[in-house]
Amino acid sequence: FTIWAVLITHVLLDAFTVYGTQLWWPFTPTPVSNGLLFIVDPVFTLPLILAVVGSAVSRQRPMPTRWCWWALAFTTTYLVFATVTQQTLESRVRHAFNESGVTVQRLQMGSAPLSNLLWRVVVEDDRGGYYEGFVGLLDSREPRFERFELGREVLADPVVREHPQRQRLEWFTGNWLRYDILDNQLVVTDLRMGHAGRHFFRFVIAERAGADQPWQNVVPYDWHAERGDTDELQLLLRRIWDDSVEIPLKRWEADMRAPNGS
Q1: Are 190 and 169 in contact (CB under 8 A)?
Q2: Which residues does 11 contact at the CB level (< 8 Å), separation at least 6?
């Protein structure tokens, strides 16, 4: 029973992240993801670790069982709080876009690093672009977003559009993809993970000899992606408590358009 409980809960927790998981395998709908938990969330994980370690070393029964139940109660409450927070902030974001006259085609929200008090938002509009920004539970100002292009015009080329690995990535990410042409290489970015200029997954999927030459599909390989440093992490943590902190998404996004991934 314990093994099955671990396997089932692990899969369910994966579904609570923006990366998601194939919850309905072997069927093939888009993998389930909802962004309630950051990929590494110490607030959620540490109580469980402490309860397991405490249970392993303690000789006093039934104290270990009590610790496990307290940890389970805490993490369940944490998920409920995250759900309520996400729904509350999503309503605020949709209202802000409605007031600005922007049509929201779809929206994704994911917990920011180390806290579900701050959330990263990606909104696809009806003009071939997307907005990105952060919104916090403690904010007193209206949400602020930056707009970027998705670059889907390149999909008019049947060679690129029919690329089997590209199609597979489109399915897996729910089509949260951006396309950039850099040094005659076509780079596709998974917009779900990371943030502007600091995305975890970027791949070259096609190449060409020149701007007037046809695309040739290639076996996808990693494109150099910038990684955030501790200063950027500290900036995001400050943003939780102070909504006047400016997150320079425009400047970071420029790294995505740098040639040679530099």
Answers
A1: yes
A2: 21, 23
* Cα–Cα distance measured from residue 68 to residue 150, given in angstroms and rounded to the nearest whole number: 46
- The model scores a pTM over 0.85: yes
Tens place of pLDDT per residue across the chain (262 aa): 455 555 667 788 888 898 888 888 888 888 898 899 998 888 888 888 888 787 777 766 666 677 778 888 999 999 999 999 999 999 999 999 999 999 999 999 999 988 889 999 999 999 999 999 999 999 999 999 999 999 999 999 999 999 999 999 999 999 999 999 999 999 999 999 999 999 999 999 999 999 999 999 999 999 987 777 889 989 999 999 999 999 999 999 998 988 764 5
CA distance 107 to 60: 49
Strands 216-222 and 202-207: antiparallel
Edge-to-edge strands of the sheet including 216-222?
177-182, 185-190, 202-207, 216-222
What CA–CA distance (Å, rounded) separates 131 from 146? 5
